[in-house]
Amino acid sequence: MAGRKRGRKPKSDPLSPAADIPTSTSPHIDDDVVFSVSNVELIDPPPSTSRPRRGRPRKILKLPENSNPQNGKTLKKATRLVIDKPNGVGVGVASLEGTTVNNADVARVVPAMDAVVKVFCVHTEPNYSLPWQRKRQYSSSSSGFVIKGRRVLTNAHSVEHYTQVKLKKRGSDTKYVATVLAIGTECDIALLAVDDDEFWEGVSAVEFGDLPALQDAVTVVGYPIGGDTISVTSGVVSRIEILSYVHGSTELLGLQIDAAINSGNSGGPAFNDKGNCVGIAFQSLKHEDVENIGYVIPTPVIMHFIQDYEKNGAYTGFPILGVEWQKMENPDLRLSMGMKPDQKGVRIRRIDPTAPESMLLMPSDVLLSFDGVDIANDGTVPFRHGERIGFSYLVSQKYSGDSAAVKVLRRNSEILNFKIKLATQMRLVPAHNKGRPPSYYIVAGFVFTTVSVPYLRSEYGKDYEYEAPVKLLDKLLHEFRQSPDEQIVVVSQVLVADINIGYEEIVNTQVLAFNGKPVKNLKSLASMVENCNDEFLKLDLEYQQVVVLQTKTAKSATSDILTTHCIPSAMSEDLRM
């Protein structure tokens, strides 16, 4: 047998019909071997200088005449697919050895990064503890992206309490002043616009994609901390469920991804493999036991916000079903409620007195279905193949003022069908003041204000859920409004003066009544005090405390106290209207 010649094997033309990819004696294809198919190039990795591997020969790929490596051909080598874009930029995606290459599955389109902008905002927050003034202004930066209609989307918390908002495009040194069109507090989305035509030159709008599936690849683009230029992180969708939106204090559909989302990423788009936007980065989970858990606002929530604005000219919010419910997983509970073996649903515990549902539904009704979709005993409904989700998702798909059909089972085994009108939630202790300054009223050094989540956070810090008085927390978590204009009025503090000696330690205590009349809200309290002709001002407070002041002395002393503490007015502007 003749001896084998040493040296490299001569190259052959890979495009010829008879050409094969080099045999297993050459473990890698040369760098200059390129297969051109349409606008997709199959580029092999550079050659290796290592010795040929021993053992079983590697299977090879043969390309017959007019073959297309995109259409389901099996590759036995690690390859890169490069997609040529109009601007000459491409992106490569590795395919695993022995997998089937399909253009729809493997080829990834470069996201429209030029549509991603940096958002600069100057904030001036109200001082809820001293409601007649504001805090020192501060600035922040975040991300946003351009959508159709010459508009820009970002997060609501990125422009909360804004004084000025400016945008800067990628690769530009100019900042453009933006106008805030709408802020969706619950869904944490804000809509911006720029009047300067120069801003829109060379910028293409982002296209929205469908809700991704689990394990779908996502790419988050934005301007996080750690640098000034654009940043790209990638990961996969690891969970789809109803999430708690921290900024809005509500629960809506959300995506959990394992791509890094850091401060400054807020408002940036999350793209899929096709280059379409599938969500907005908005929050992440920071804990010592977890890492790389980020959350994205999905397209159904985004489109709800945009269509709500386009339909009403303003953001009206996400409606809720104004009930609290209980799971019916216990068989004895279902039996006692008169449910048949094939019936499923949830038991209504309480109903918001101010909600439209209070006119039709009753406590202990069993909610069987919502808009024709059966509700399971654990409160879930079918979502997609092999997935279930909380039935509040169905409610959140509606708009404020829409109607929905509900089926309930009453105690006497009677099935009733109702058509209810949905409305946004009105909490006794609101989660936000929606950009309005806090209300206050001062008399004889007593500072009265209303309780809200921002107020509790201002008084007790971020751990207000543990530090605030128990009775205020109970009203925050469990109590409903009895009327649409009901508020929790408290004595925030007492500005020390001779007239209020002995009352200095009263802090954050609810006012229940004034001169024997219940205090409904802060405006009614201010009106009763201002129009009081009795000899004394008597305040009934929580914990059976009583405050008594002479009417004439109290009113005359108020002016001097305001001057001493440099307070411009005894009441906020909204109480004068």
TrEMBL record:
Entries under Pfam families matching the protein: PDZ_3, Trypsin_2
Keywords associated with the record: Hydrolase, Protease, Serine protease
GO molecular function list: serine-type endopeptidase activity
Region of interest called Disordered, as start-end residue ranges on this chain: 1-74
Family: Belongs to the peptidase S1C family.
PANTHER family, per database record: PEPTIDASE DO-RELATED, PTHR45980
Protein name per the record: Protease Do-like 9
Organism for this UniProt entry: Nicotiana tabacum (Common tobacco)
Species classification: Eukaryota, Viridiplantae, Streptophyta, Embryophyta, Tracheophyta
